[in-house]
């Protein structure tokens, strides 16, 4: 695929071979709710004051409780997984992630996903794909960004 121009991907399913570095798409959005934050605290066991105590959060200069950073990452991955652009993958191998700004209850987040890198694996049916994530709130501010390395499926040969 050398020499091809990166594209905004339309809805559909994509094998490893269908993608070129630079291809990109936007996911849908989700509104982060108070219930998301409280439930994530319960599931993760992370009851750090910044996430569960409005007074503490205000004392730290925030207008209220801040959603867990890992909740933002999990929601971003969920938005990718339910996007009409479906990259055929097997599993995630790892994340490299940064928390750029707070996410609050009531924020509406979405993800701009970019194909950052591709490489062949010794297994012919599975290769390595790196996706870049830019998570933005309703104001267009990047609140999180990073990369996920995935095992991507190759198109079956007949």
Task: Give an overview in words.
There is one protein chain. The protein has a single domain, classed as Roll (Thiol Ester Dehydrase, Chain A). The protein is elongated and about 60 Å long. The model has no long low-confidence stretch (mean pLDDT 95). A hairpin with a 6-residue loop joins strand 5 and strand 6 (126-136). The chain has helices spanning 34-44, 49-52, 54-59, 69-81; strands at residues 12-14, 24-31, 85-87, 89-99, 108-119, 126-136, 142-153. It is built from four helices and seven strands, in the order ββααααβββββ. Helices cover 22% and strands 38% of the residues. The strands form two sheets. It has a five-stranded antiparallel beta sheet with strand order 2-5-6-7-4, with helices on one face. A two-stranded parallel ribbon has the order 1-3. It is α+β, with helices and mostly antiparallel strands and 158 residues long.
Beta-strand share of residues: 35-45%
CATH class annotation: Alpha Beta
SSE topology string:
EEHHHHEEEEE
End-to-end span in angstroms?
A: 21 Å
The residue ranges in which pLDDT falls below 50 over 5 or more consecutive positions are: none
The counted number of beta strands is: 7
CATH architecture: Roll
Gross morphology is elongated
* Strand line-up across the major sheet: 2-5-6-7-4
Total domain count: 1
Give the helix level as a range of percent: 10-25%
* Cα gyration radius (Å): 18 Å
The name CATH uses for the topology is: Thiol Ester Dehydrase, Chain A
Q: Name the CATH homologous superfamily.
A: Hotdog Thioesterase
Helix segment tally: 4
Mean pLDDT: 95
Pairing-aware structural class of the strands and helices? alpha+beta
């Amino acid at each position: 695929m050398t020499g091809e121009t990166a594209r905004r991907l339309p809805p559909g399913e994509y094998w490893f071979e269908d993608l070129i570095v630079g291809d990109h798409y936007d996911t849908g959005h989700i509104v982060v709710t108070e219930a998301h934050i409280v439930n994530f605290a319960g599931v993760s066991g992370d009851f750090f004051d910044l996430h569960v105590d409005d007074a503490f959060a205000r004392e730290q200069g925030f207008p209220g409780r801040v959603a867990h950073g890992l909740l933002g990452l999990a929601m971003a991955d969920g938005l990718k997984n339910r996007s009409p652009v479906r990259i055929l993958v097997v599993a995630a191998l790892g994340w490299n992630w940064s928390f750029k700004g707070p996410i609050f209850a009531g924020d509406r987040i979405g993800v701009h996903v970019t194909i950052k890198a591709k490489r062949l694996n010794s297994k012919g049916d599975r290769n390595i794909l790196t996706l870049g994530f830019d998570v933005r709130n309703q104001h267009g501010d990047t609140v999180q960004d990073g990369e996920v390395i995935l095992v991507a499926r190759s198109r079956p040969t007949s």
